[in-house]
Amino acid sequence: FSFNNFYCPFGKFIAAAFRLWFLVFGKGYRVILRQCKWFVMILRMSIVMMIARRYLSVVLVLLLALNGCVVPGKMP
Prior knowledge:
Strand content: under 5%
Number of domains: 1
């Protein structure tokens, strides 16, 4: 009986987790898929922003150089 009493709260926790799992993935499956689409979009945007930050200085230098080549009077 002590064995059962020891694992009783853990079993309740597992049961609650499974209930939550089935509630989320059973009823709200389409909502989860929509949220995943948004999450993927945000992830792509964050990756793009990371790459842009990495290459922003190079792009800025190139733009300034092009601007200087095209319009020399605007360059300081």
